[in-house]
């Protein structure tokens, strides 16, 4: 994956998105309780905030690399 690649919500499986939202509620701006009652579009918005966090970018890139290798 290149450093200039733009990461999008759609690149990640739903399970990963959910895990990251729950793991980083402050960044996602969504509590665990809110998560369970949120619509899928609200969850995608929360994950987009997690995805935009620069300190987590390498984690997301490594996940996608591992995902590609397993295919």
Give an account of the 3D structure:
The chain is mainly α and 71 residues long. Helix content is 66%, strand content 0%. The protein contains 5 helices and no strands. α1 crosses α4. The chain starts with 13 loop residues before the first helix and ends with a helix. The mean pLDDT is 92.
What's the short version?
This protein is mainly α. It contains 5 helices and no strands.
Features:
66% helix, mainly alpha, globular, 71 residues
Mean of residue pLDDT? 92
Binned strand content: under 5%
Q: Number of DSSP helices? A: 5
Runs in which pLDDT lies below 50 for 5 or more consecutive residues are: none
Largest sheet: none
Fraction of residues in helices? 55-70%
Q: What would the principal axes of the Cα set say about the shape?
A: globular
Order of helices and strands: HHHHH
What class do helices, strands and sheet pairing give?
mainly alpha
First-last Cα distance: 16 Å
Using the CA coordinates, give the radius of gyration.
12 Å
| Number of E-type strands | 0
């Amino acid at each position: 994956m290149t450093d200039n690649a733009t990461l999008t919500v759609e690149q990640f499986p739903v399970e990963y998105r959910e895990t990251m939202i729950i793991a980083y509620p402050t960044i996602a701006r969504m509590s665990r309780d809110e998560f369970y009652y949120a619509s899928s579009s609200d969850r995608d918005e929360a994950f987009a905030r997690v995805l935009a966090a620069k300190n987590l970018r390498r984690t997301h890139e490594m996940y996608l690399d591992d995902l590609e290798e397993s295919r």
